[in-house]
Amino acid sequence: MLWCRLLPRVVVVVLAPALAALVALGGCGGSETTPLEPDDGNPFTPFAVGADTTFEVVTWNLRNFAEDAGSTEVALVAAAIEGLGADLVAVQEIAQADRFSALLARLPGRSGYQAVSDAFQNLGYVWLDSTVAVQGVDEILTDEWRALPRSPLVIELTWRGHPLVVIDNHLKCCGDGELDLDDPDDEENRRLVACQLLEAWIASEHPDDAVILLGDLNDLLDDPPADNVFTPFSDLPDSYAFADLAIATGPAFGWSWGPGRSHLDHILVTDELFGALAASGGGCRTLRIDLALDGQYATRVSDHVPVALILPESALP
User: Fold this and answer.
1) Per-residue pLDDT tens for 10-53?
2) Would 2 be classed as within a structural domain?
């Protein structure tokens, strides 16, 4: 879904073709280079994040998945998930349930789950069976439609014995960039209330667990305090941290929507994961897989690119 808030600070970045082909990942530590051609025929393997020594979780808005009646989009998304190799992928905007099932059919060795409460643009997960053991998946705060039009989707899992709780979200879109506390229908106000509800739920239900909250949160991390919808988390720095803050405040090339127009896809961790986040050296990356499709990504796949969090096993609780 196109995000209809118009941003005054949109930056247009024009890269020389050779440079654009080389730069593959925009992340907390800057950019990295990858080979121009994959070895296995999958155009997305140069962007792989999967490794034996790290837990990788990805958030990815698939934009009305899947609009292509010929299922080319399903094949491309499957190839991307396979190529990235992440342990867990949280997706937003599943618009057709049968095509999510078709996606899973193309991913042997992986399983998935899609939410059932919404009529359109559901949330979902895809995980690697060999590393992830799922204890349960559940939708929460289902009565809070105004703040949370897509009920958050929680997955409780262990990754190689390490317990983790992940919360997938797709917050209300749009707005004018100004937070109006007196208007319950103000888009920014609705996102603020969503963050208040989510913070209270984490504090109540998982006060001592390692929690990752992620998704298309549809707002900017670096808005001024008076208009910042994420203050329920940022006002508690001893309890929460946005792993992708350096992306949000960094070069436009690393921004996830557009891509390069704005950064709306975020990953938050609780204090139980601060050590792992520090050990990762800023292990959050925007995966510019759009560069693999020669300018056709926006029409064939999505207007968002994935954002990944990569945490070393040695530092996980």
Assistant:
1) 222 222 232 233 233 333 433 333 434 555 689 999 999 999 99
2) no
83, 48 contact by CB (below 8 A):
yes
CB 95 within 8 A of CB 66: yes
> How distant, in Å, are the alpha carbons of 109, 202, 242 from that of 34?
26, 38, 26
**Domain assignment of residue 161, yes or no:** yes
CA 127/CA 116 separation, integer angstroms: 18
- Give the strands of the sheet with 153-159, arranged side by side: 132-139, 153-159, 162-170, 211-216, 265-270, 240-242
Whether pTM exceeds 0.85: yes
Instruction: Cite the beta strand spans of the chain per DSSP E.
Output: 23-27, 30-33, 54-65, 88-94, 110-114, 122-128, 132-139, 153-159, 162-170, 211-216, 240-242, 265-270, 284-287, 307-312
The CATH code of the domain that includes 198 is 3.60.10.10
Using one digit for the tens of pLDDT, what is the confidence trace for 220-257?
Answer: 999 999 999 999 999 999 999 999 999 999 999 999 99
62: in domain: yes
Exposure pattern of 278-307 as b/e (b: 16+ CB <10 Å)?
eebebbbbbbbbbbbbeeebeebbbbbbbb
Hey, what are 125's tokens?
Answer: 């997960």
Could you tell me if residue 6 is inside a domain?
A: no
Q: State which residues form the domain around 38.
A: 17-315
